[in-house]
């Protein structure tokens, strides 16, 4: 079973106060104003992952805001990077360790997200 098949469903990020500072820094790095970054860091987002054929959709619901990544493995896609509407061209692929990786296409943009399911 692939990582993507294991990820399909509804997930809730369990907030850990030790993660708050790291999440706040990450959100600021994505271009969010400090107040929004702090609010996001204190939330427990709901993540819905679905599949329709070879198209995958990851939707983040954070308080009253949502952002969605819809993609096919190995094909560039427009990824909304934050609730302020900023976008970047990204590429999703499965790495050698079987994890889902979403990485910016522009080599100047060093953002990368790595998804894994732990049993």
Automatic annotation (TrEMBL):
Q: Which domain of life is it from?
A: Eukaryota
User: What SUPFAM superfamilies does the annotation carry?
Assistant: Lipocalins (SSF50814)
Q: Which InterPro entries match?
A: Calycin
What is the protein name stated in its UniProt record?
Answer: 14 kDa fatty acid-binding protein-like
Highest lineage ranks of the organism?
Eukaryota, Metazoa, Hemichordata, Enteropneusta, Harrimaniidae
Gene coding for it = LOC100367944
């Amino acid at each position: 079973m692939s990582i993507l098949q294991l990820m399909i469903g509804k997930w809730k990020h369990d907030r850990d106060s030790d993660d708050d500072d790291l999440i706040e820094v990450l959100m600021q790095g994505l271009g969010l104003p400090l107040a929004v970054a702090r609010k996001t860091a204190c939330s427990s987002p709901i993540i819905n992952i679905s599949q329709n054929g070879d198209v995958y959709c990851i939707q983040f619901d954070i308080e009253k805001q949502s952002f969605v990544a819809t993609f096919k493995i190995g094909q560039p896609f427009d990824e909304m990077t934050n609730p302020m509407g900023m976008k970047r061209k990204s590429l999703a692929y499965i790495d050698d360790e079987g994890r889902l990786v979403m990485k910016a296409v522009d080599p100047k943009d060093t953002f990368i997200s790595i998804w894994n399911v732990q049993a």
